[in-house]
Amino acid sequence: MDCMKTGRLIAQLRKEKGLTQKNIADALGIQNKTVSKWECGLGAPDTSLLSDLAVILGVDTRRILEGEIRPNRPDNGNMARTKFYICPVCGNIMFSSGSASMFCCGRKLEPVKAEKCEDGLSINIEHMDAEWFISFNHPMEKDNYMMFAACVKGDVVYLNRFYPQQSPQFSLPDSLMGRLYLYSTSMGMVDAGTIKEIIKKQNI
C-alpha cells in the first residue's frame, strides 16, 4: 500500500461526500488526528477498519488499498452491448451498457458470457394481443432453474426475473424485436437469438 496515494484518495472521497475528518473519526471510533495522518500519508488505515471506511466513503476496499480510482470509458448508450453480472453468493442480477466495475457481497463480478442456444432448450413464442408470449421448457427446480430472461435492443433492456417452482414464461411488446438472453443456473447465459430469428424457426 502506498500511504501517500491512499491518503490522497481518502481525502478526495471524504470531501466529495461533504464529510469532515471528525465525521470519519467518530464513525470509526478513532481520533481525528488518525484520519489526518492517513490523509498526510503518515500512516494507513488498519485492516480492521477498511471495510467500514469503504462503506463511509462509498468505494470498495480494493480502491482504498490501491489509492486510486480508474474511471471507466464513457457509456456510449448502445444497450446492444449490455453486459450481465450475477452474484454467486446472493444471486443479485446487475447489468451495464458499458465498462463497469461491479461488486456484490465483497466480490468483484465478471460479466457472464453468453453461449449459443443449445438444442436441449426449447423456446416457444406466440403472438397475443400486441405482445409476444414466450415460454420455454426448464425444470425450474430449487437447484436448477431459469433465473432470468432479457430482451435487448437499441436503447432498451427488458428483463424478467424467475424463481424456482415458477412457470418459465413471460411476455413483451411485439414492437421489441431484440436479442433474447436466458440465464439458467445449470447452463449459464444462453444467447437464444433475436425474436425475429426465433419466430422464423417456428414459422409464425
Keywords:
single chain; 204 residues; alpha+beta; 434 Repressor (Amino-terminal Domain); Immunoglobulin-like; five-stranded mixed β-sheet; 27% helix
What does this structure look like?
By secondary structure, the chain is an alpha+beta fold. It has 3 domains: 64 residues, lambda repressor-like DNA-binding domains (434 Repressor (Amino-terminal Domain), Orthogonal Bundle), CATH 1.10.260; 31 residues, no CATH class; 88 residues, SOR catalytic domain (Immunoglobulin-like, Sandwich). It is built from 6 helices and 12 strands. The strands form 4 sheets. Strands 5-12-11-8-9 form a 5-stranded mixed β-sheet. Strands 6-7-10 form a 3-stranded antiparallel β-sheet. The model has no long low-confidence stretch (mean pLDDT 87).
What is the count of distinct domains?
A: 3
CATH topology of the largest domain: Immunoglobulin-like
SSE pattern, N- to C-terminal: HHHHHEEEEEEEEEEEEH
CATH superfamily of the largest domain: SOR catalytic domain
Report the sheet with the most strands, covering strand number, pairing sense and barrel closure: 5 strands, mixed
Q: Rg to the nearest angstrom? A: 23 Å
Principal-axes geometry comes out as: elongated
Helix residue percentage: 25-40%
Strand order of the largest sheet: 5-12-11-8-9
- State the CATH architecture of the largest domain: Sandwich
CATH C-level label of the largest domain: Mainly Beta
Low-confidence stretches: none
Mean pLDDT: 87
First-last Cα distance: 61 Å
Beta-strand residue fraction: 25-35%
